[in-house]
Structure formats: C-alpha cells, structure tokens
C-alpha cells in the first residue's frame, strides 16, 4: 500500500478509538517500553501529543523518563526549512500549540541533534521492514538523518505493522523498533 492510502487508513482507525482506549493503549505502550534495554542512555527525545489527531498520550512516558532522571528533549518545528529545533524540557519550559495543534516549547536550552541518544518517533503507520509513514512533511526524516548513527529510533503505534509500504524513499529513515500495546518489534 502507498503512503497516502496508509495515512488515510491509519487516521480512520485512530478516529474510531475512544478516549479511554487511547489512555489504556498509551499506558500499555509505556509499560512495554520499560521492558526494553534502552535505559542506560541520557538524552531522550519525545514528541508531545497532538490530541486532535488522537495520538498516543506521551504523558506516561514523560513520567517514566522524569522518574529515571533522564534529560528529556522536545522539539519545535521550523516550517520554512522543515527542520526541528530541540530544547531541554525543564520546569520552566513554556509549551504553546502551533497552527497545526502541535504542542511546542516557546524557547529554552537548545540541544544539538548529535547529543540525542533515543528518539521516540510519532507515526501513522509502519511496515514489517521498519519503514514508517508520518504526516508527510519530512520533519522526522530530516531530524533523524542528522542524529548520530547509534541513536535508537523507536516508533510508537496503537496498531500492528502493515506488510509493506510501497513508496519508500531513499531519504526515509528506518526505525530500530516499534512499540505497540502488545509487543516490542525489532527491525
């Protein structure tokens, strides 16, 4: 299936989820993450939930990261360049939604791409080879391509993988893992 069709399918599946299902599945994903061997790192990049898109509630993951005393990094999208600027999440970080309802830091302590050890990657769909489909702007592919080679890329999904994404580009960055409410898939 191509990316455009997968985007429509995934958005449709998400819209069917109740708020209670989103919370239950988000908590199950956070619990799956606790089983992974990723907790010896320092800088963890996490996306903040776009509630209007019925995304995974990353609040549970924020609590885990804070409890493990990790450096939490969040981003602000630069729509002119399709790049992202990363900031350390602190008690003083002010969060504001942009025009696309993406919660973003207003400003703060900047963190370079190469410092980030683990990236939790938002997605709409993914396949059994570790390819992902996002919202289509390329922000995460641009960002992930600038990370160090050993940065661990972990997709988060409510749903199991698709068999194959037909129109994968050379510039698409593959996931190392995808975590669902039921399992951790390694690629």
UniProtKB/TrEMBL annotation:
InterPro entries tied to this protein: FTHF_cligase (IPR002698), FTHF_cligase-like_sf (IPR024185), NagB/RpiA_transferase-like (IPR037171)
Source organism, top-level taxon: Bacteria
EC number: 6.3.3.2
GO process terms (BP): folic acid-containing compound biosynthetic process; tetrahydrofolate interconversion
Keyword entries, A-Z: ATP-binding, Ligase, Magnesium, Metal-binding, Nucleotide-binding
Gene3D superfamilies (alphabetical): NagB/RpiA/CoA transferase-like (3.40.50.10420)
Gene Ontology molecular function, alphabetical: 5-formyltetrahydrofolate cyclo-ligase activity; ATP binding; metal ion binding
Residue sites binding ATP per the record: 3-7, 132-140
Family: Belongs to the 5-formyltetrahydrofolate cyclo-ligase family.
NCBIfam families: MTHFS_bact
Official protein name in the record: 5-formyltetrahydrofolate cyclo-ligase
